[in-house]
Amino acid sequence: MTGVPEAGEESGLSRVRIIVPVRNGGARWREAAQALRAALSDPSLVAVVDSRSADGSDRTALDSGFELERIDPGTFNHGRTRQWAVERFCAGREFAVFLTHDAVLEGRESLPELLAAFSDPQVGAAYGRQLPHPGAGPFEAHMILFNYGTMSETRSLADAPRLGIKAAYISNSFAAYRLSALRACGGFPGHLILGEDTGAAIRMLLTGWRIRYCAEARVRHSHAYTLAQETQRYFDFGVLHAQLPELMRNFGDAEGEGARFVASELRYVAANAPLLLPLVPVRNAAKYAGYRLGRGFRRLPNGLCRRLSMTKVFWDGPKTKDDRAQIRRNTP
């Protein structure tokens, strides 16, 4: 697919809204905003939801010509905030594209390549390939290369026996949704600690929709996590998987995929940074411990969960007894 459609064209980006949640995005957000601006003839297609950034991220959005909505960071919730943004910004649109503020479009073609996935009427959601940021270390580079291959594919529920948990994989750092499919599946679930994209993808797959991975649509996106941050991150994944029993029930356990990841990481580090090989078992033991603690979060006090978690606002957020009970239950 060549050329970026003009915003006013019937078949172009006029049917799309691009939504970017932002919180103190710094220099990376300025880079991402510049790449978005270069890819669009109409910057007002971008809606930025800023959680009261203190570093001028909101000014970056306004200077780029994007629509801006400021929210209280204490109200941010991965699923509810994105669902609110869909309802707030997507009236009359057919598709919504979500980017995180640290995902930098790789070329003008990435958006149209991602949206080309919807030429298949059975595709309910699509996500693009992620590449490491320049200068990424071996651990963060491997994480991205492991999860985002060079071959595009369309997945359905029938692929679960072959792919396991990977069949439901998606990333909201660069993903697009057919809004009719998203609404038919109940929108983004609001009870999850993170992974609202995974929750929506599971619902789509279970109701007959397909998920498309578009390797031709690319962004730069990676994180240099410390050991403590990796442990917190995997605690949150454990919480997510405990909250999504339908993921384990229909797609299998995550631990088989984890073993495959460790073997791949050992090979990658041996080839690219052999002096760091002793860190591989240490980092993966910490991640596994975090994950197992997260899976059992219902048996832990809320204060300890907050300390173990990277997503601390999640543990602060619920204000009512019903909200707290919903977090602890398996179902939305």
Poorly predicted ranges (pLDDT <50, ≥5 residues)?
Answer: 1-11, 319-323
Give the structural class: alpha/beta
Termini separation (Å)?
39 Å
Sheet having the most strands: 9 strands, mixed
Structural overview:
The chain has helices at residues 26-39, 57-63, 78-89, 110-115, 138-147, 160-163, 179-184, 196-206, 227-243, 245-251, 255-272, 279-295, 302-308, 312-316, 321-328, and strands at residues 16-22, 46-50, 67-70, 95-99, 104-105, 123-131, 153-155, 174-178, 210-220. With 332 residues, the chain is of the alpha/beta class. It folds into two domains: 13-140 and 148-224, Spore Coat Polysaccharide Biosynthesis Protein SpsA, Chain A, CATH 3.90.550; 228-328, no CATH class. Strands 1, 2, 3, 4, 5, 6, 7, 8 and 9 form a nine-stranded mixed sheet that branches. α5 (138-147) packs across α11 and α9 runs parallel beside α12 (279-295). It is globular and about 50 Å long. The relative contact order is 0.13. Residues 1-11 and 319-323 have low confidence and may be disordered.
Write the layout of secondary structure elements.
Elements: E1 16-22, H1 26-39, E2 46-50, H2 57-63, E3 67-70, H3 78-89, E4 95-99, E5 104-105, H4 110-115, E6 123-131, H5 138-147, E7 153-155, H6 160-163, E8 174-178, H7 179-184, H8 196-206, E9 210-220, H9 227-243, H10 245-251, H11 255-272, H12 279-295, H13 302-308, H14 312-316, H15 321-328
Parallel strand pairs: 1-2, 1-4, 2-3, 6-9
Antiparallel strand pairs: 4-8, 5-9, 6-8, 7-9
Helix pairs in contact: 5-11, 9-12
